[in-house]
Amino acid sequence: MVITRFSRIEALIIDTTGPSTPGVIFTFLSPPSLELHETFEDILFGREYLRRNRLSSFGGFSSRITPYTLFAMQVTCASQGHLKDFRRMARVACLPRPNDAVPNPIVRRSLFSEQTLGRIERWLSQLPWSVAFQTLSILNSVSLDPIELWNLQAQIGALLSDANFGVAKTGYVLRLFGDKLKDPSALISNENDIITCLEGVKKDLRRADLSYVGQSRNPGVFNCYHATVTPTRVLLEGPFMDQTNRILRQYPAHQEYFLRVSFTDEEILHFRWDRDVQGALFVKERVGGILEQGLDIAGRHFEFLAYSNSALREHAVWFCATFQEPDGGWVTAQSIRDGLGDFEYKGLDRQPAKLAARMSQAFTATEPSITLPLDGTTIPILDDIE
User: Fold this and answer.
1) pLDDT tens digits, residue range 99-113?
2) What is the pLDDT of residue 47?
3) Confidence of residue 315 (pLDDT cuts 50, 70, 90)
């Protein structure tokens, strides 16, 4: 079943092309909830109960297209009488007034086919990761469809080749371009408008001073990339300036391999359940599945690393991608955790909650410290008072 609150319905459009079987097109402000309803019998009392299971998709190939296609849905009425009943109920429920219209003819463009999405993934894996991250962010926010994004290859390649921009500044251009696409006043309706919008952002930033982009002289802050996991999609944001911790300062040249991941509902709020929804089962499958299997973002595979106690209250944790240090050694999420200390001597390896709490102290945001030599010049040594 598809479930949404009335307040999240943006518009209703009556499809008048089929007079015998009219349709109603719903557009949503945020993706609705997907649920599987089952009945089970209480053996003790001999009664049937409804059990509602929250889903991330309806399974199969729909799991790949669900993040992009849940903002609109068409419901076909069996007759004009059913449509009349719907109009009456919509009026009672104070839904947006249905508009009669003849929608554009349905054309199969294979926007979300395996071939189209696979082509996008291969292209992103060849781009610098910071640029691929911003490009994927545009796709995941449904600001552009895969074909529209694919048609920007030449413009993105030109930005990377432009000596005035480069990798860091190209990522910044695409980030602002993504924000511009979300602006309703942008009035983007076709491919030419999309290219004009990107060229406009590029032109504005060419005149601006971008020398600070991607740079931070303060070792206490860094550019933090964010991923927000909702029941049906993964939204990408950032990078935002954030305070470092002890682990991040150990790898100053690889900080973009660390990802801040938050788990929220579709409206970027904490999870809320109706009483008869099996919330624990959904959290185990959706949240637990990602914690165990990791996330694939723009050609990189991120694994769960750890969390800080304060961030965990906001359902946010740290993920990390494998990277290679200058000496040739590989750094993984497990190797970072192993380097935090020996936690076996007090039996913490058999107490997961306490073990994670001890590890979380290394991921608490802190200010960097300095090392002072004990040579008598920097720190004067005074005799004790007798």
Assistant:
1) 887 666 667 788 888
2) 58
3) very high
Pairing state between β 258-263 and 295-297: unpaired
Cα 380 off chain centre by: 52
- pLDDT for 272: 83
| Assigned token pair, 332 | 């993984």
- Beta-carbon contacts of residue 364 (< 8 Å; ≥ 6 apart): 245, 308, 309, 310
The two structure tokens encoding residue 328:
């040739």
> What are the contacts of 290-293 at 24+ separation with CB within 8 A?
290/229, 290/261, 291/317
* Phi, psi (deg, nearest 5) at residue 234: -130, 115
- The per-residue pLDDT for 128 is 95
Query: In sequence order, which residues have a C-beta less than 8 Å from that of residue 61 and are 6 or more positions away?
Result: 114
Angle between helices 166-181 and 153-161 (to 10 degrees): 140
Q: How would you write the chain as a 3-class SS string? A: CEECCHHHEEEEEEECCCCCCCEEEEEECCCCEEEEEEEEEECCCCEEEEEEEEECCCCCCHHHHHHHHCCEEEEECCCHHHHHHHHHHHHHCCCCCCEEECCCCCCCCCCCCHHHHHHHHHHHHHCCHHHHHHHHHHHHCCCCCHHHHHCCHHHHHHHHHCCCCHHHHHHHHHHHHHHHHCCHHHCCCCHHHHHHHHHHHHHHHHHCCCCCCCCCCCCCEEEEEEEEECCCCEEEEEEEEEECCHHHHHCHHHHHHEEEEEECCCCCCCCCCCCCECHHHHHHHHHHHHHHHCEEECCEEEEEEECCHHHHCCCEEEEEECEECCCCCEECHHHHHHCCCCCCCCCHHHCHHHHHHHHHHHHCCCCCCCCCCCCCCCCCCCCCCC
In terms of C-beta density within 10 A (0-12 exposed, 13-18 middle, 19 or more buried), how is residue 357 classed? middle
- Model pLDDT, residue 380: 72
Nearest of 307, 292, 315, 322 to residue 359 by alpha carbon: 307
